[in-house]
């Protein structure tokens, strides 16, 4: 959470993730993430998810599309307090709950991701009135959650095969004396 740990530099992110700074800045640009001189620890966790999913064979286009949908869900349901440019990442350090929390931001929806128990139209946040209703503007929370779940299930179904392949590669690595 903000203020709970010192801010991290790009060099720290690079070392922590085992990737060059150019990889991080590329991810920032392609995912539309904020860049700064210093980052909260939650930023590392957010980037780590992208790194791990890429290592598990999930394509970057697929991840960017899922992040785009997740961002729309966060915006539509007013889940980001917008206290800082990285406030949507604050939940990244909370324990994961794949049934209730969004994959990248780890924001808790308060209901199951299926959206079946989502009660729309209850926005208690003080905000300026919109010219058009969300549905008329094309942002229907239920539709977004269905689209998100379709993408998420595709990712979840593709990961086990790649994970099995990675385990076999690590076992092979040890058998020829490369692993510790």
Describe the structure.
This protein has 180 residues and is an all-alpha fold. It has one domain. It contains five helices and two strands, in the order βααβααα. A two-stranded antiparallel sheet has the order 1-2. The longest helix has 35 residues, at 141-175. It is globular and about 55 Å long.
SSE order and pairing:
Elements: E1 8-9, H1 10-17, H2 21-31, E2 38-39, H3 41-55, H4 60-76, H5 141-175
Antiparallel strand pairs: 1-2
Helix pairs in contact: 4-5
Q: Which properties best describe this structure?
A:
two-stranded antiparallel ribbon, mainly alpha, 180 residues, globular, 5 helices
Mass-distribution shape: globular
Distinct helical segment count: 5
Percentage of β-strand residues: under 5%
| SSE pattern, N- to C-terminal | EHHEHHH
Supply Rg.
18 Å
The number of E-state strands comes to: 2
How far is the first residue's CA from the last residue's CA?
A: 35 Å
Query: Major sheet: size, sense and barrel closure?
Result: 2 strands, antiparallel
- Classify the secondary structure makeup into a structural class: mainly alpha
Average pLDDT for all residues: 86
Q: Give helix % range.
A: 40-55%
As laid out across the biggest beta sheet, the strand order is: 1-2
Low-confidence stretches: none
- What is the number of domains? 1
